[in-house]
Amino acid sequence: MSEKNSQNKKNNIDRARLGRLTRQQLKELEEKEKTGFQKALDYLIMILPFICGVAAVLEYWMIPNGSPNSNPYTYVGFLVVLISVYLLYFAFSLMVRLRGDKSVLDMLRYRAPLLSALFLLLAGYDYLTLKTGILTQPFVPCMNYIINIAWIDRAYLLECTLHTLRLLFLGYFIGVALGLVTGITCGYSEKVRYWVNPVIKFLGPIPTSTWIPIVMVVAASLFKGAVFIIALGAWFAVTVASMTGISNVDKDFFDAARTLGASSRQLVFRVAIPHAMPSILQGCTQAMSSACVAIMVAEMMGVKAGLGWYMNWAKSWAAYDKMFAALFVICFIFTIVTKTLDLIKKRALRWQNGVVK
Fold first, then answer.
1. 357: how many CB neighbours lie within 10 A of its CB?
2. Contact 292, 334 (CB under 8 A)
3. What gap in Å lies between CA 60 and CA 57, rounded to an integer?
4. Distance of alpha carbon 295 from alpha carbon 275, whole angstroms
5. 3-state class of 53 per DSSP?
6. What is the C-alpha separation between 243 and 188, in angstroms, rounded?
7. Distance CA 253, CA 109 (A)
């Protein structure tokens, strides 16, 4: 293994001489060689999620229940699936490490404490609900109740999820598109910014949820009103980020481009937007956060479908297990959406982590 490490460092040095060293390779080259104790500690930390997962299974299975628990194997199966996925990821990272790429193993080492905490959190939650009743059921149902009801009501949950996603992305993309046009125009043109900036400053401090009662009365339909509310929050976030990013572009870049004969269109699309792209993408991420908050409030107050409506409906019938099931689905969906936006951002800004020359 040490011979392979030496060979990898030698290859990195050769690449550096050729001017083709990536930031990750540069980081590995600058790192000090870990001692045997540090390597053993790293592997112990990476095994810790498996240990905590087994502990969560034993806690659920060995400690007597404080309340009735139908279909008890569902939660065990859920834990076993999580543990199996982690072990497969661990095995894959070791295989990649043997081929000389340690980035996957480093990422696993970074995430292992969080995954361990997740298993401990599940065990603690189960102990406080099903085992001891400190968190009183059915108001705070145990994980086994939540998973079972989510599976039983999966068709209705799926229908509500699709409605929420349609509403979310429709309002989000409309708001982002309008925000890009407004922000880029205001950032590049001082005349347009003179007229639009006061409107942004006036509407900006008003929370999106404040518009819901007005829009629900004025709008032709509840669906269109919800789309408007989501688009409004996304528009404001993207407009401010785009305008700020383009306004902060160094004026020397524009002067140099004009000297080379660039047209106004080229100044916008070849100079302004590329240099403002980090700020623009950050605004798109903030717009998604605003849209997620707005859609939940809109669905709870007026829209007759969706996960927010489902939670409100379940609460009115005191079906707290359904309410928690919808809550977990919401958290899962928004986590996936946010992660996807982060991947798009890294892909679009790959030059920031690209080859160092």
1. 7
2. yes
3. 5
4. 32
5. helix
6. 8
7. 42
